[in-house]
Amino acid sequence: MxxxxxxxxxxxxxxxxxxxxxxxxxxxxxxxxILNNEHGMAALPYxxxxxxxxxxxxxxxxxxxxxxxxxFADEYDTTRQRLLxxxxxxxxxxxxxxxxxxxxxxxxxxxSNEELGSGNLISLFPDLTKEMLTPADDIAVVHSSIGEKRYxxxxxxxxxxxxxxxxxxxxxxEASDRMVVVCLTDETELLEYRQLYNDNRxxxxxxxxxxxxxxxxxxxxVRRSLLTALVDRKLSNYFSSMNGIIKKFEVDKYLLFIxxxxxxxxxxxxxxxxxxxxxxxxxxxxxFTVSIGIGMRGKSYDDNYDSARKAMELALGRGGDxxxxxxxxxxxxxxxKSTAAxxxxxxxxxxxxxxxxxxxxxxxxxxxxGHKTADVDALGASVGIWRTATALGKKAYIVNGNTDASVMPxxxxxxxxxxYPEDFLISGEKALALVDPATLLVVVDxxxxxxxxxPRLIEKCSSVMVIDHHRMGSETIENPVLSYVEPYAxxxxxxxxxxxxxxxxxxxxxxxxxxxxxxxxxxxxxNFVVQAGxxxxxxxxxxxxxxxxxxxxxxxxxxxxxxxxxxxxxxDKAQIYKDCFAISVCDPEGTxxxxxxxxxxxxxxxxxxxxxxxxxxTPYNGKTFLSAxxxxxxxVQLLMERLGGGGHKAxxxxxxxxxxxxxxxxxxxxxxxxxxxxxxxx
Length: 682
Hints:
By secondary structure, the chain is α/β, with parallel strands linked by helices. The protein has 25 helices and 23 strands. Helix 19 (about 510-525) crosses helix 21 (about 550-555). The radius of gyration is 40 Å and the shape is elongated. About 35% of the residues are buried. The model is unreliable at about 160-170 (pLDDT under 50).
């Protein structure tokens, strides 16, 4: 409306200039008569003549010009109409509720009368809603389809008030204030080519035989070539059936090339080759397991290969016997049902110990850090690294804040012994102030930055070493100078004890240090029952030689009567879900260490007949802590990963922030249902 009024004012001012000139002439004549009557009278005839000419031009000229301008406007409007009608871009006008009131020829050609149906945009395009037609300042873009054709709809809004069919045949009488202008772009062919490109993108993979040496050693020498040939054929047949190419480049490693579209079938099959390889048996007592790392949808072949390599590191860091896909920065896991195979060889431990010693020699100080709310294993591993660094002449600190109540007897014994400096245990804030280029940060019993005692230390330190026995997840510490993550190990205390033996077995321990390291192994193995291998007992024997006392450690693990009753009540309240899951809630009221009690209750629930796995939920400090345990049939680590946690096949946990117990219970049951549906739980 405002634009229309402005046009009228401009038009009137254009034809009003003779009247303005007439007013100026009259004013000039009056002034001349006042100032000089003689001159004014002399100019009067000329002024009168000029005034008459202005009046004649105004009345006669206007009548002649307006018809000419109107004819030009009509011709211009007709030309514009023809141009819009013949425009190759399909265009239409509609009301804000989608009713089409005008469309050009291209739109009619693109949309037949049968497809148009009711003549409404919303019914014509299934992806278009009434809300999308609501007037807005910016142009809107919607992608939709008609039949087999795909279109991009460019939507804008125009003011058409005052324009009627009588003035412009293009604009219907019912045109409203804000009309919807829709232009179509046929992108069917573009999307087809894009899909063709995406389907034919090459994915790259690395396949590794996890236990090549051990499996070969378990069969007669004459059959070893046959065993490897059977594995080669099994892998080749599987990926060839998926149109992939697999080539062996080392005795236990393969390269895989496969199209994106064919990779979808492998994902749908959930890498059944992982289980197929384990069925190969020609007398070998130990079956082969395979780890697969896939990189896909990267910007280049190099990106895909780097993603495949990182995926392989994740697969091996999680214990092997699984496939990991990295696509567009997203990580997806398959398999991983079996327990990580412990290796009796200590070559890797010796190599890592030597590398640790070399890194340590180049640094002036060491800061050791575990996870939040440190348990005995985290404290024991930290103390072991502290003692090693101190024995080699380096200044060392342990970052330790809040700890479980079960840790307090060990911690109190250390701090009250009088054998340690005042800065033996420091806060995260103080550790941040101590960091300099010559500082080595050693992170123990955790490989997720967000779970560590002070995540900012990881960002600030240029040299970070990781020692952990938990399976790696999507969140990892990036670019550590040394990473020693072994899921087969029972505990971080076991791993540190092994490292110490190779760095310098003559290092002298205080009895309290040996006790806390031994206690870490006892805690995570549940008294040498879970995840305890040959090397676990060897580490325990080493600590016994260094002064660890079994009876003393057992006394420090004793619990008070209140905690014992809370554990018993948790077991008593347990319910059986899906015939094999024991689920319960631990009441933290009055207990010293509710999360530990929840974990102990989960262990107790495994003693019930037909229970394959147990999950105990503990609400504490605004979070709901989950403790999951199993014996051998169910991988609870996969269950906890669905809930943002992790761990091992038999021991795992998670933390749910800002969620009450009922919602957490529902989430646990939903995760179990999903695993059963996908066949991850038999």
